[in-house]
Amino acid sequence: MKQKKLRNARLCINKFKEKMASLSYVLLISFLLTACNTVYEAERIDASDLDNEPRVAFVRPDKYSFTIFGSRSIKEHVEITYERFSTDDSGYPLVELGLRNKGGQSFWDNKATNITLSIKTNFYKEIKPSQGAPVYETNWRQLRIVRGDTVHYKVLCPVKLANSYQIRISENIK
Predict the structure, then answer these.
(1) How far apart, in whole angstroms, are the C-alpha atoms of residue 40 and residue 60?
(2) How far apart are CA 50 and CA 123, in angstroms?
(3) How many CA atoms are closer than 13 Å to the CA of 55, on its beta-carbon side?
(4) Is residue 72 a contact partner of residue 62, using CB atoms and an 8 Å limit?
(5) What is the pLDDT of residues 4-35, one digit of tens each?
(6) How many helices and strands in the chain, by DSSP H and E?
(7) Which of 97, 134, 150, 164 could form a disulfide with 122 if both were Cys (CB 3.0 to 4.6 A apart)?
């Protein structure tokens, strides 16, 4: 009787081990598949597509996400509070942008993280950026945003001919 109970217990334990092993294989494979990055071929885009791009673009969104559930986007953590294009008192183009670190919006992302981003602005003579090269281009600048805070980014173009702009925001570029 004891041997029969012992054998049944061993069978149950072995079945449980087999189920756990197969579950761990499935989890391992799913984790490896989600950790892979997709690579796209670089190709020319149509000029009309470039003209329809937003003035503020988020690029290289690899760092600020949780691989399995996240959207893999910096926009998940950063919110644009305002965007203005004007001229200063001496007639030079001025761009102002407010960026707020809203933190992760998911239940698993509860750390009070600071985000360091790189930001670059291009100014164009034409309203449509596809019409030519930028007349002025800033260097990459670092912006450190504490969770919940808003950073006010201002850039002045020293070329009065600029009528349009595009801002690129990326992960921290060292």
Answers:
(1) 13
(2) 15
(3) 15
(4) yes
(5) 777 777 778 888 888 887 877 777 676 655 55
(6) 2, 8
(7) 134
Tokens of 139: 């260097």
CA distances from 158 to 87, 91, 119, 152, 161 (A): 11, 10, 18, 20, 9
pTM confidence score = 0.61
Strand partners of residue 160: none
Place of tokens 């761009």: 95
**CA–CA distance, 68 with 61 (Å, rounded to integer):** 15
What does the alpha-carbon distance between residue 98 and residue 133 come to, in Å, rounded to a whole number? 26
Say if CB 34 and CB 66 are below 8 A apart: no
Distance of CA 83 to the CA centre of its chain: 19
